[in-house]
Amino acid sequence: MKFDPSIVFANWDILAYGLLVTLKYTIYTCAIGLAIGLFVALLQLTPWPLVRWTGRIWVEFFRNIPLLVLLMWTYYALPIFLQIQIGKETAGILGLGFYASGFYAEILRAGVQSIDRGQTDAAVALGMGYFQRMKRIILPQALRRMVPPLMGQTIMQLKNTTLLSVLTIPDLLYQAGYIASFTYRPMEVYTAIGAVFIIMLFPLSALSRRFERKEAA
Amino acid sequence: MTATSTDVVLSVRGIEKSYGKNHVLRGVDLEVHRGEVVCLIGASGSGKTSLLRCMNLLMEPDQGEIVIEGAPLFRSARGERLKLSGRQVSAVRIKTGMVFQSFNLFPHRTALENIIEAPLVVKKVPRAEAETRARELLTRMGLPDAGHKYPSQLSGGQQQRIAIARALAMQPTIMLFDEPTSALDPELVGEVLAAIRQLAAEGMTMVIVTHEIGFAYELADRVVFMDQGVVAASGPPRELLLSNANPRLAAFVGRFTEQARLLGPLAAPAAAPSLTYLPTKDNGSCPI
Predict the structure, then answer these.
(1) A48 or B287, greater pLDDT
(2) Which residue from A119, A140, A144 is facing B104, i.e. has the nearest CB?
(3) Is B102 in Cβ contact with A132 (below 8 Å)?
(4) B56 vs A: CB within 8 A
(5) Which of A29, A42, B144, B163 has its CB 3.0 to 4.6 Å from that of B139, i.e. a possible disulfide?
(6) Which residues of B are less than 8 Å from A121 in CB distance?
């Protein structure tokens, strides 16, 4: 069978819609993941054991459940447990967002804890309170270290949105399957979306590597 | 060396601290008077750094009392404990300035920004005023041109002098030094000691944890020898360091005097024949 790229161009609007959906879910779930992740990281950085453990459990739960299982569970099982109606969009955003929060929380916590203890000592000795230390001394240094892993996680997050196709959310992968189903040309379509992902993510990865080098220098 | 008045700037009483089974401080009493320079000496693990870190409550003792200029910073005895808010603790704590072994400058801030940070955010001093004072301090520390540099662009000795300036910027009544020269290359120790010496000459009250016995001997009004979590001996440096009353102290000091003895020949070059001063060959064949 000859490789015929015109199949892809003829259906470009279907793929473009899929791309928009993929980007939309990436942005939503990264935002939710970062917000919850920051909160959970802060929980883990408090001096109170019970609060720390709550944060820890959250992280371990979402880091150890396979994403596909989590998505299925959120869509099919959660509504029955809670006796509520959840649409596939909500289920997808919650599942992916919570999943991301576990990883983001871990990156943020590790970044803060990687700062030398002497920095806190110096700030405390100078009379700075907890929030002053965090805002002016610890976080500015930690954020620089966090940038490369945060970018890496965001790249993972974009790739993970393809799992939303199992909930029949029309992301790039789902749209590709749809085109393949009526053109009978999976070769061209799946090759095309593979290329789209690589073209989107390669610059991000390169940027992330540059940050890493800068941090190491 | 300076006139020591009788009023007590810092007093710690009955300080106890354990880490698990490790009893690092076993009831330490110490009073530091205005203008006094106290050097804490002792072997590693004797509790001298722990004691210093208790003085500004960087480390919280299990038991005991800490008072700075009449204001209580910590008090705990038989389950009864003085409760102070973070703000109250901070207000007492900033009467002390601390200098660390590894400098602990803020690496994302320039030297000048390091110095003005605490005056700006803790004392709410206007920026212009804080900067003027910081420049004075930089000049006092012999680094008038280092203000715009980042810590990574400065040598260890320069960083430590910036760290001293940063502590002084809060106008503390007592300075606490935690082995200020231990992390420095040998050739950089002198400049930091000179800065501390200058502070002593200006009458600053200081507690210095140090391994520089010679420095303690020269500068201290009082040397405190810590051993196994207690003050084992204390007194004027001349009497204390030269007496043999405490065998552990004598052994501790002995290691340093032994080292000094070994270095002795290097310190007296006049006695050795100089290689650069060999007489030039006098062959008497100088053409006239």
Answers:
(1) A48
(2) A119
(3) no
(4) yes
(5) B144
(6) 58, 98, 100, 104
Q: What is the pTM of this model?
A: 0.81
Q: Do A118 and B87 touch (CB under 8 A)?
A: no
Using CB atoms and an 8 Å cut-off, which of residues 96-155 of chain B contact chain A?
96-98, 100, 102, 104-108, 117-118, 121-123
Q: What is the pLDDT of residues B243-271, one digit of tens each?
A: 877 888 888 888 888 888 888 887 665 55
* Closest listed residue to residue B8, CA positions, set B64, B61, B65, B57: B65
Separation in Å, CA B47 to CA B61, B92, B94, B175, B246: 12, 23, 23, 19, 18
Residue B29, classed as helix, strand or coil, is strand
CA distance linking residue B208 with residue B270, whole number of Å: 35
Give Cα separations from A14 to A160, A187, B13 (angstroms).
20, 17, 78
Q: Give the CA distances from residue A26 to residues A20, A69, A93, A190, A197, in Å, rounded to whole numbers and listed in that order.
A: 10, 19, 9, 20, 13
Count of alpha carbons within 13 Å of B45, Cβ hemisphere only? 3
Report DSSP state, residue B270.
G
Evaluate whether B207 touches B175 at the Cβ level (below 8 Å). yes
CA gap B85, B17 in Å, rounded: 22
Q: How far apart are CA A73 and CA A91, in angstroms?
A: 9
- The interface predicted TM-score (ipTM) is 0.86
Asked whether the predicted pLDDT for residue A215 surpasses 60, the reply is yes
Q: What angle do the packed helices A186-216 and A12-44 form, to 10 degrees?
A: 40
| Euclidean distance between CA atoms A38 and A41, whole angstroms | 5
User: Among all chains, which residue has been given the structure tokens 């000691």?
Assistant: B193
- pLDDT tens track for B102-136: 999 999 999 999 999 999 999 999 999 999 999 99
